[in-house]
Amino acid sequence: MDLSILLKGLFIGSVLKALRQGLIRTVFAVCAVAFGISSIVFIIAAIEGSNLQARNIIKLLGPNSIFVRSGFGGKNSVRRLTYRLDIDDFRLLNKVVGVRAGAYMLLKRVDIATMGNNVKAYVVAAMKDFLPVFDYKISCGRPFLPREYRYAPKVCIIGTELAEELFGRQNPIGKHIEISKTSFVVVGMFAKKGKLPSGRSLDNRAILPIGSYRKFVEPEYKRFFAIKLKLEPQVPYKLIVKQVKKALLLRHSPEDFVVITPETIRKFLNIFNLTLSIYLCLVSVTALFISGFVMSNIFSINVKVRAWEIGIRRALGASSIHILVQFLAEAVIISIIGGAAGSILGLAAIRFLMPLLGIPRVYPVASYAAAVFFSIATGLLSAVLPARKAARWQPVRALRSRL
Amino acid sequence: MAIIELKEIRKVYHQGDLRVEVLKGVTLEVEKGDFIAIMGASGSGKSTLLYIIGCLESPTSGSYSLGGVEVSSLDDDDLSRIRNERLGFIFQSFYLIPYLTVMENVLVPTIYSARRADFKSRARELLGRVGLSDRFSFLPSELSGGQKQRTAIVRSLINDPDIVLADEPTGQLDSSSSAQVMDILKGLNNQGKTVVLVTHDDATASYAKKRVVMKDGLIHPA
Asked: What is d(CA B143, CA B27) in angstroms, rounded to the nearest whole number?
């Protein structure tokens, strides 16, 4: 097969001019490829993004940890927040064999002010093991002293984001902030923790010793929604989880809590990923089929409209292979332009739609490779039949189509 | 020596159950350097004969030898090469590709040619000779009928063929453009090109050295 014409500038120029001549057909064909490709780019990014999310959540949970969350049992329990855990549950769980330490989560959104600034932020109560159990590391200043957990001192530890909001670039240690109209001294700042899967930052919080929290922020008794436990690595993990569930069932029957382990997160996200993959696969395969169908029709029309041109090219010495190459080259150019446009569209979808789905944004290289592959494959597959038909026409029949 | 030799050429078309015999055993010899006009009424089969001579169509039966080569034994690639290198076509409807300029249209046959040469210079020279040196970058839609046909003539000559085949080349032209086009064809014949012309017009045919008439699918002397 002689493909040397592909190297001739005149041939390439003629292909580009043919595409410009049928501009509307070209634009429709490019759009068809672009929509198909953008959905493929998006699907790959969405799957990679949710995998990253799974890894982030597991990282956030920390090693050798489990999370007990208040909520109705069943499939949707993780999404529904209730406040049914209490201090007795916490004491009970601390006694389970294999539990090294535990802490519960009490927090309230309040006004925090300095001389010039006033912001709304979460204040979190810290019991004795809170900082190590929830993996807070002090980056500047000091942690709470053991005695500070026993009464209600006016001291606090703040996150980097809150520090910046309140003090700009100044060192916050030793400075005063007003929490619920009571002045507290900042004694420490914790290292950056990042964001929750929901996108909410963990770094714009202030932590108070439990006594101070009870006295100045939330004096009325309140149940809480979560307990986190650090486990002894040498005790079998599954056994501890089983014991924790058993202990809680004594006080919570019917079951109104969920024990979250890295395994349950992985399971949940796997199901989520699978559902997402199946749905998006169907969407993108359908999109590719539709774009292939649209392109095939556009190429058929293209071949029909330009039948006499095929005839004159044959009369001037083009073989049937040359005609095939001409139409396939047009398809490849349309595919490349469509693939590029689809990638840009896909990137826009990743940028603006992924946050709406609660998936972290990723721009995987695989999606670009897939875009190039699928766009050229769709273009060639949909053009090959019309192009073969054009190549097989008898020159005279093609020429006479104009008469 | 005959450059084109047709023996008992028949061409039958089938349209559904209908069998139409357009050529009923045509025998014709064209000498190298000849200028022959094939005349005849519409539907007499003269264009079909020209297309067979031009390797654009194959006969149902009979033998056709072009420059000593039996054409019926050739495949699509060989036939394309012959059309590209040995034959030049001129049609009544010009068949210029509308989105290419005059220069690009003239160079289209070189896309399919294996030969390497300075085709652009040759195109410039030939276009100059037919009075189109100021029209290189014009589109066909910007040309008159006569200019279009002159462009088509230059296109037919770009690969320097032995034989020029013209199918009603003046059919869409006024008398002055027709005379110009026929003068060019006459000039080409004087330079040694073999010209086969199909026309139903006596004035056009008068430029030829030899005339034959097609009637009911057969050739008769004029």
From this structure: 39
